[in-house]
Design a protein that fits this description.
The complex is a heterodimer of chains A (about 625) and B (about 550). Chain A is α+β, with helices and mostly antiparallel strands and about 625 residues long. Among the domains of chain A are: about 1-35, no CATH class; about 370-625, 3-Layer(aba) Sandwich (Rossmann fold), CATH 3.40.50. Chain A has 12 helices and 36 strands. The radius of gyration of chain A is 26 Å and the shape is globular. Chain A starts with a helix and ends with a helix. Chain B contains 12 helices and 17 strands. Among the domains of chain B are: about 60-235, no CATH class; about 400-550, Histidine kinase-like ATPase, C-terminal domain (Heat Shock Protein 90, 2-Layer Sandwich). In chain B, a hairpin with a 3-residue loop joins strand 14 and strand 15. Chain B is α+β, with helices and mostly antiparallel strands. Chain B has helices at about 10-45, 50-65, 70-75, 80-95, 145-170, 180-185, 200-215, 285-360, 365-400, 410-425, 445-460, 520-530, and strands spanning about 95-110, 115-120, 120-135, 140-145, 185-190, 195, 220-230, 250-255, 265-270, 280-285, 405-410, 430-435, 440, 470-475, 480-485, 535-540, 545-550. In chain B, the strands form 4 sheets. In chain B, strands 1, 2, 3, 4, 5, 6 and 7 form a 7-stranded antiparallel β-sheet that branches. Chain B has a 5-stranded mixed β-sheet with strand order 12-14-15-17-16, covered by helices on one side. The radius of gyration of chain B is 54 Å and the shape is rod-shaped. The chains are: A alpha+beta (about 625), B alpha+beta (about 550).
Chain lengths: ~625, ~550
């Protein structure tokens, strides 16, 4: 028996080795290996850098665990919930944590504080049916935290102080109706507020609480000014992201009294990322920008030494700093590349050591994955559009291509490990991702160019990208599929209606079938938001011709290519009646439609078995069609 | 067994029975076929209406299942301009929609409420209402409705909103809009009218529900669209798919208070569904009309039956004819054997008598010896000739004879025969004329026997004072033609075909004996054998002409 096991394990090892070394044949990786979820996540460093707390699975529920860096033996599980997930948590002091049990937007608010030594959870206030958003910095000041809550009126958030002793929230400031958020200074006073009617934003400042606000800057809906946090020793200035007067978002130091900006970091080609500010140090520790790969500039000298240690160890990797304490005793970071999902590590200054915390997607460890490269092409009106192309490992003259459209449109695809892309590449398809106009990260002009261009210029960018790919001889022009979720699904359905020759088939997950319904999702009391959407998509009453022309539902009878459609019962941007009508209309033309409906899923499938089924069906469908 | 005579039997009774049976069968099957056709047509009449109905209802179903739900696509965003555009397409594409009433409905939790309903905190009010129709010249008209005008439609509005309120009452977060819910809540069907409220998204329905239940919600307005289509079923087009079955298809009110005076011979009806239910589809056909269709269908059946009947009759006739021919043949053979026996008996008995006489005579004088010698010789020749004839005929029949063809110089050949004939029949007046250029290719022995036979016949069947034979030998482009023309008793026209048959003898005074009915049959066989032809023409008591013809160009085998 033992011999047999040995023999088998030997066989197994050799096959794995052969599988790894063989260049000609690419190992077939099962679906679940791509989409495995990590069992430890949400790592946070305590303010003194001694502990790392994270969420882990215990009793099928997410619970908080605390890792003691100095004495690993005293690491422990902090919460013991067995019927409810911990949704989020944060350190409010070196020994205490606030966590939430609220399961969804509809669920009531359940917040607790817990001391990591006594392990007793105290409710912050009685469960309540309203929403809450915390104000930074998330540290206890005078035994209380600041939060915005809509207790008074569900459509208006007021400013409250939430004492940690459970005595219940205290109202500090009434919202006159137009304030969308407040920003606290380092001393816990609130001096800065952002008002918004979505078309026009105003940044308001006051010297002292109780004083009237005065306007610092005013921006239109395309321009952003986003305060990041206070500047040390200066209540009259904040670090902010701003594209006022420039195209790309830059990191600036904003003088709130004069409204003048002092440039901290910017990039000629891309927006700066919203990272690098440290609340505990009240300074910009580093700045990043996403060019082909991530570009990081370290501004803090102490941190520079630590960062170079990390880069030495992880050469060629993208590094995301997750969290650190103010003294940089412990630095949490994540590393990854396009072909390596990477892991989460911490650097301990005391031990001068990098320790692994969690491997992301261990099932893919040691597997050969397909590299991703940035491409760029010109659209028909001369705009330079960037995208990413991932070739399958098996080389060919021309590839069957899956055009993977990102959701949004106000998002973007980035360089790095992407499970969906790697899954498709492993199945032998080249994956083409397009950062079409309207995608974020490429500046104001590029973003606003996508306004009211759903199905218009946006779709043209995608089609031009595909045409370019065919022209380059990369794509096999008879084997191109278009696929996406949300907006990407909409784009796929739109292509099914209007680009019948370019694509062989279309896959839509929660693709918007009807833009009227999509806009309906914004409740009428969010008038300001509605105006913003009218600017981005269009006004359904004034521009209903545009809506009719660009909603796939009105053109279902034009579809001639096979479609695979997924729809979750809780997807609020699509109505079931619309989707059913669409499917029925397409079916009436004898066009093959495979339609999968999961009642208890939302816009993106979450349950493991549904995710696996989702990708298995995609695999099957693409195999049949390409 | 022994009782059955071996004579040939003709049973005409059997044939007659067969005929009668076949006829009876024909008549009854025709009768039943007719009956079945009638049944079939009547069943078709009541069954095929469904197909006509399906075709008829198609545009309505299309309107109801495809066009009406399109309203929901707009999610309540329809304003008067869009409504006009939508109504225009509907009115033009579906002529049975006589007008469209569009109402912009507002769901609100504000206190201000125009005309409308209120359920707890949820107010449902009418903001605007339009009526769209086509005028007599097919121009599209839209009229804004004042509140006075609207009274006509208040009932539809109220009904719809009551239903919706009831639905809001029982709906919960986990409710899924089923097709049944949609049909029951958002459609209202009344005879002549379809009301449709655009189907909101589930989250909107939940919002309405909370607006209804809770007071302190943010004030909001939701827009919905209500359409009321007036339906006039009589404007629906009827396509008579079976013009042979249905003489007339009409749309009639379901309640018909007029008593039908002249009811149609056949009629059937179908009630119309849903919004059309105050009308029915009536199918009618008169007796003549349906008769015509029955006949049309019956015709091929009866033709088929008749054909079978005719074939059976034909079979009967053929059987009859065979029986008759066989019976004649049997008779002929019987006669032949009788004749032959007689033919053989005479010379044999003469020989026997002559032998006896010689035996019993003490002394024979020279004259007597000569006489008996001549008699014996003659009778032996007769027997020999008879046997030769039989043998050669049998040979011809079996095709065992050989064709020894050679080129015959006809002048010389005829001269030989005529010289011999002079000697044989000194009392026969023989006239001949030979006019040929080429030599004829034939078997001289066989040709001689044909000549001999025809000359013998001419001599035999002529009265003693009219024994005249004219022989002409001619040549035309294709054929040698030899005519034998006598002035004998002639042959009846009816027997022209029969005389060339074996054992057939024309009954007359000249062939009481010494004939076995083979001569002409023999001639015909031989001429055919040599590639020629023999024909007869005759007039009773005037004379007979036999015509032999042989081709000039002979294909040698």
């Amino acid at each position: 028996m033992r011999f047999l096991i040995k023999a088998f394990s030997f066989l197994f090892v050799t096959t794995v080795l052969v599988g790894c070394n063989g260049n000609g044949k690419v190992e077939y990786i099962p679906v679940q290996d791509f989409f495995g979820k990590p069992d430890r996540f949400n790592f946070r460093v305590s303010p003194d850098g001694r502990h790392i707390a994270y969420l882990g699975l215990e009793d099928h529920c997410r619970n908080i665990f605390v890792l003691d860096i100095e004495e690993p033996d005293s690491s422990k599980q902090l919460t013991y919930q067995n019927n409810m997930n911990v949704q989020y948590f944060f350190w409010i002091g070196k020994d205490s944590i606030v966590f939430s049990n609220t399961q969804s937007h509809q669920d009531s608010l359940r917040l607790f504080t817990i001391d990591i030594h006594h392990e007793v959870a105290q409710p912050l206030f009685a469960p309540a049916k309203h929403e809450l958003s915390w104000l930074n910095p998330l540290r206890s000041r005078d035994g209380a935290l600041l939060a915005e809550m809509n207790i008074r009126d569900s459509s208006v958030f007021d400013l409250y102080r939430v004492p940690l002793d459970g005595s219940g929230p205290k109202l500090i400031e009434l919202n006159p109706g137009n304030i969308s958020s407040w920003y606290a200074s380092a001393d816990g006073k609130v001096r800065l507020a952002l008002t918004s009617d979505s078309v026009e934003d105003q940044l308001l400042y006051r010297e002292q609480e109780g004083d009237p606000y005065h306007k610092v800057v005013e921006t239109d809906f395309a321009t952003t000014i986003l305060p990041l946090g206070p500047v040390r020793d200066d209540h009259g200035a904040v670090f902010a992201m701003s594209n006022v007067g420039r195209d790309k978002l830059a990191i600036v130091k904003l003088d709130l009294r004069t409204g003048r900006e002092e440039l901290v970091a910017e990039n000629k080609y891309v927006d700066m990322n919203r990272e690098g500010y440290s609340f505990s140090r009240e300074e910009m520790v580093y700045t990043t920008g996403l060019l082909n790969k991530k570009e990081t500039r370290i501004l803090n000298k102490d941190f520079k030494k630590i960062y170079s240690k990390i880069t030495n160890k992880f050469d060629g990797y993208n590094i995301d700093i997750i969290d650190t304490d103010s003294a940089f005793n412990t630095v949490l970071f994540k590393t990854y590349t396009d072909v390596d999902p990477g892991g989460i590590y911490y650097y301990s200054k005391k031990k001068d050591k990098i320790v692994e915390l969690s491997v992301i997607n261990p099932a893919l460890n040691g597997k050969r994955l397909a590299p991703m490269e940035e491409v760029s092409f010109d659209s028909r009106d001369g705009k330079t559009i960037k995208g990413y192309l991932t070739y399958p490992l098996v080389k060919k003259d021309s590839y069957p291509v899956v055009v993977l459209i990102h959701d949004g449109p106000n998002r973007r695809d980035v360089w790095g490990f992407n499970a969906e892309v790697q899954f498709l590449a492993n199945r032998g398809y080249a994956v083409f991702q397009v950062n079409y106009r309207g995608s974020v990260g490429y500046g104001k002009e590029f973003y606003t160019a996508g306004f009211k261009q759903w199905g218009g210029e946006i779709q043209n960018d995608i089609s031009d990208g595909v045409a370019w790919l065919i022209h380059q001889g990369i794509a096999d022009k008879n084997k191109i599929a278009i696929m996406g979720t949300g907006f990407g699904g909409y784009s796929a359905l739109y292509a099914a209606c209007f680009n019948p020759t370019l694509y062989k088939c279309a896959i839509s997950a929660s693709g918007y079938t009807n833009l009227f319904t999509y806009l309906k999702e914004i409740p009428p009391y969010y008038q300001p938001y509605l105006q913003l959407y009218y600017n981005i998509i269009g006004d359904p009453t004034k521009e209903y011709e545009l809506f009719k022309a660009t909603s796939p539902l009105f053109h279902a009878e034009k579809v001639r290519m096979p479609i695979l459609m997924f729809h979750g019962g809780r997807d609020r941007f699509n109505s079931l009646t619309d989707v059913n009508q669409f499917v029925q209309k397409v079916k009436n033309n004898n066009v093959p439609v495979r339609y999968v409906f999961k009642e208890d899923e939302g816009r993106r499938f979450k349950k493991d078995e549904n995710v696996i089924e989702y990708y298995q069906m995609i695999e099957q469908f693409l195999k049949e069609q390409l | 067994m022994g009782n059955f005579g071996l004579q040939y039997r003709k049973n005409l009774g059997l044939l007659i029975t067969f005929l009668v049976l076949v006829t009876v069968l024909f008549v009854t099957s025709a009768f039943f076929a007719r009956k079945m056709t009638t049944n079939f047509v009547e069943t078709e009449f009541s069954n095929k209406k469904v197909e006509v109905f399906d075709e008829f209802i198609k545009p309505f179903n299309d309107f109801f299942t495809s066009k009406v739900p399109e309203i929901s696509y707009y999610q309540g965003y329809i304003d008067s301009a869009q409504a006009a555009e939508f109504s225009n397409t509907v009115l033009r594409r579906y002529p049975f929609v006589s007008n469209v009433n569009f109402s912009d409905v507002v769901f609100t939790n504000r206190d201000t409420l125009g005309k409308g309903l209120r359920f707890n905190n949820l107010g449902i009010s009418l903001r605007n209402s339009y009526i769209f129709k086509l005028d007599a010249e097919n121009r599209f008209i839209g009229v804004h409705q004042s509140s006075e005008d609207y009274k006509n439609y208040a009932e539809d509005f109220n009904n719809m909103m009551l239903k919706l309120a009831g639905f809001l009452d029982r709906v919960s977060d986990s409710t899924k809009l089923t097709d049944n819910d949609i049909y029951k809540v958002f459609y209202t069907l009344q005879p002549g009218k379809i009301s449709y409220l655009n189907i909101p998204r589930m989250s909107d329905i939940m919002a309405y529900k909370s607006m209804m239940r809770f007071e302190d919600l943010p004030k909001s307005d939701y827009e919905q669209d209500l359409f009321v289509f007036a339906i006039e079923p009589r404007k629906m087009a009827i396509l008579n798919k079976y013009p042979n079955l249905y003489e007339d298809i009409v749309i009639k009110p379901i309640v018909d208070q007029y008593v039908v005076k002249n009811a149609a011979y056949l009629s059937t009806e179908l009630a119309l569904p849903g919004a059309l239910s105050d009308y029915k589809l009536q199918f009618e056909a008169s007796r003549e009309f349906i008769q015509h269709d029955i006949n049309r269908r019956f015709f091929p059946v009866v033709v088929g039956l008749s054909l079978i009947y005719l074939i059976l009759l034909m079979v009967g006739y053929l059987v009859y004819r065979n029986v008759m021919i066989n019976s004649r043949l049997y008779q002929l053979q019987y006669d032949f054997i009788n004749n032959l026996t007689h033919e053989f008996k005479t010379p044999v008995s003469v020989i026997k008598i002559a032998g006896n006489n010689i035996k019993s005579a003490d002394k024979l004088s020279d004259t007597e010896r000569n006489m008996y010698g001549r008699i014996l010789d003659q009778e032996a020749d007769k027997l020999n000739a008879l046997m030769n004839k039989l043998l050669s005929f049998a040979q011809i029949e079996n095709k065992s004879i050989k064709f020894n063809g050679e080129y015959i110089e006809l002048n010389e050949f005829c001269q030989h025969i005529f010289d011999a004939t002079h000697i044989k029949y000194p009392d026969l007046q023989l006239n001949y004329k030979i006019d040929v250029k080429d030599e004829m290719y034939a078997d001289p022995v066989l040709l001689t026997s044909v000549f001999q036979n025809l000359i013998d016949n001419a001599y035999k069947y002529s009265a003693p004072d009219r024994k005249v034979l004219d022989i002409r030998v001619q040549q035309n482009k294709k054929n040698f033609v030899i005519l034998f023309k006598d002035r004998g008793i002639g042959i009846d026209k009816k027997e022209f075909n029969s005389i060339f048959k074996k054992f057939y003898r024309v009954k007359n005074q000249f062939n009481q004996q010494g004939s076995i009915g083979l001569g002409l049959a023999f001639c015909k066989e031989i001429t055919a054998f040599m590639g020629g032809d023999i024909k007869v023409d005759s007039q009773m008591n005037v004379g007979t002409v036999f015509t032999l013809s042989f081709p000039v160009e002979v294909k040698k085998a």
